[in-house]
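Exercise 7. Given the encoded structure of a 262-residue chain, write a plausible sequence.
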């Protein structure tokens, strides 16, 4: 099994700056996406800090000789590295007035043979497209999701709610934060999508799936998703990462699949 990566970012039609950050390291089989919030340019700072911390922290852990990489160790490592990113953003927000109140969502995908580990904080999402069917793998940390869970809103009513952008968990807002982590099966021809709410708020899941199915390549699918979100209004920054599992032997010398299951 090999992996193919593609990503696209856009400011959208209503914003003048981009507070989303995307980091992809194919050699580590890792993708990270963050959607920042805060005044001035603070959202950009928070998302970049969080994404860079996750990429660097996971990279150090994966390349540490002799490190245990069974399922509990993977879960613990991802959560610990996310807390390090949270501390970095929180400390910066406390130390500089122009960064006060900044924070960011976070979603990351780490691949191993036949599995993908998804960790997320906030309402940036992870999906899996399999056999033409799109499934949301993450669950939003948002007031809207809590209202749906409590039976106060239906999914249809939620599409028109004024509370769509109120997250209940974010990186850098409090001294500690918990990354929600889950592992999911990965088959040949599966495509994993990471996205900010600039995509998921503008397009229903059925449209996202339709756009992905209609594209003839992964880069064109990434750009088509951005274009569709802009055509629907583009009210926020839009960022997407696509990772497709392909059949065939891994290329010689490629550093993918650093795990061994115990």
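Solution.
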């Amino acid at each position: 099994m090999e992996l193919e990566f593609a990503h696209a970012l856009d400011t959208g039609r209503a914003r003048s700056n981009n507070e989303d950050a995307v980091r992809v390291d194919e050699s580590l089989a890792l993708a990270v996406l963050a959607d920042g919030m805060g005044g001035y340019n603070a959202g950009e700072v928070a998302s970049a800090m969080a994404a860079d911390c996750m990429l660097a922290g996971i990279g150090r852990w994966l390349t540490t000789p002799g490190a245990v990489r069974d399922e509990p160790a993977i879960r613990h490592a991802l959560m610990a590295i996310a807390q390090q990113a949270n501390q970095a953003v929180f400390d910066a927000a406390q130390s500089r007035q122009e960064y006060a109140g900044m924070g960011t969502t976070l979603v990351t995908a780490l691949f191993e043979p036949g599995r993908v580990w998804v960790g997320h904080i906030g309402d940036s999402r992870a999906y899996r497209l399999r056999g033409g069917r799109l499934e949301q793998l993450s669950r939003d940390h948002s007031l809207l999701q809590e209202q749906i869970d409590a039976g106060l809103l239906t999914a249809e009513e939620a599409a028109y709610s004024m509370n769509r952008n109120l997250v209940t968990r974010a990186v850098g807002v409090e001294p500690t934060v918990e990354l929600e982590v889950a592992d999911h099966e990965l088959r040949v021809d599966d495509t994993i999508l990471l996205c900010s709410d600039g995509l998921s708020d503008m397009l229903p899941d059925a449209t996202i799936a339709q756009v992905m199915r209609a594209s003839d390549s992964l880069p064109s699918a990434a750009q088509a998703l951005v274009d569709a979100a802009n055509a629907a209004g583009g009210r926020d920054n839009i960022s997407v990462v696509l990772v497709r599992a392909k059949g065939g032997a891994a290329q010689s010398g490629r550093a993918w699949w650093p795990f061994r299951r115990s």
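Remark. Confidence is low (pLDDT under 50) at residues 249-262. Students should compare their own answers with the one above.
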